[in-house]
Amino acid sequence: MTDRHSLAFAYNTNGFAHHRLDEALEVIAELGYQGVALTLDVHHLDPVRATDEEVDALKDRLRSLGLRIVIETGGRYILDPRRKHYPSLLSAEGRERRIEFLLGAVRIANRLGAEAVSLWSGRPDPGLASPDLAERHLRSGIEVVSRGCEGKGVRLALEPEPGMLVDTLGRFDALVAAVRPADLGLTLDIGHAHCLEREPTPEIIHRYGDRIWNVHIEDIRGKVHEHLPFGEGDIDFPPILDALRQIRYAGLVSVELSRNSHDAPLQARKSIEFLRSL
After folding, report:
1. Which CATH number covers residue 194?
2. In degrees to the nearest 10, what's the CA dihedral of 172, 173, 174, 176?
3. Do 117 and 109 contact (CB within 8 A), yes or no?
4. DSSP line for 43-80
């Protein structure tokens, strides 16, 4: 018998890049999503410029709309207008700016009552002398940000991503074993797991259980890392959603379609209809 534990669906604001944040939240709530994955960005609560008053106003708005929230930190050009996702925790220069950005995300998450802050490792920087140095930079950066979460009720969840230093769950496991403190959760992106893992995704969900603190969902065709609307790829979603129900996953399941902002309202509507149909 299938466990009917219900899942809470959300939509990532990186799929509403052409909307004002307040209007994006309104559309997301109207469509029946229960939460939002807020990607901090130059046009969506820029943490470099946002005031406490703006954050508090957003908290009130989320409450009035009935939306839960997780904080995402994958804004493409938020730290450098010329280089995507730069600097990262691995960068030979400027990594302190990434750390400060992530600590700012933690402060915002604390003020908003967000359920998690999601981050990724970054890509290996050609300017680093060795792979070992990249791993040391990553561990030390994660440890600083993790300490910044202490006493704030904020959970830090790392997302393995194709092309980055931590791309697979095996590398995630090695990082968790190496960092101190080791209270680091997993952002499980269903498409990324489909691309890179040999183990079926439902088995991954059962294996990681309580370590999964955040979930991204989208379709994927073959093993190509390109986020697609549901039905345009090859992923078999019912067993995946059933596995999340069976482990009684209580976090948000966030649709991530950053390349579909040009028709965001339509894609958001079609996505929630698809997920509800399952």
Report:
1. 3.20.20.150
2. 90
3. yes
4. TB--TTT--HHHHHHHHHHHHHHT-EEEEE---SSSS-
**Structure token digits, residue 93:** 């220069």
* Cα four-point dihedral sign 254, 259, 261, 264: negative
Tell me the residue length of the chain.
278
Task: Pull the structure tokens for residue 82.
Answer: 């010329």
Q: For residue 156, is it within any domain? A: yes
In a domain, 245, yes or no: yes
C-alpha to C-alpha distance for 184 and 278, rounded to whole angstroms: 31
Q: Give pLDDT tens digits for 157-186.
A: 999 999 999 999 999 999 999 998 768 999
Cα distances from 215 to residues 105, 159, 257, 271, in angstroms, run 18, 9, 14, 15
pTM: 0.96
Domain with 240 in it: 8-277
Report how far residue 39's alpha carbon sits from residue 37's, in angstroms, rounded to the nearest whole number: 6
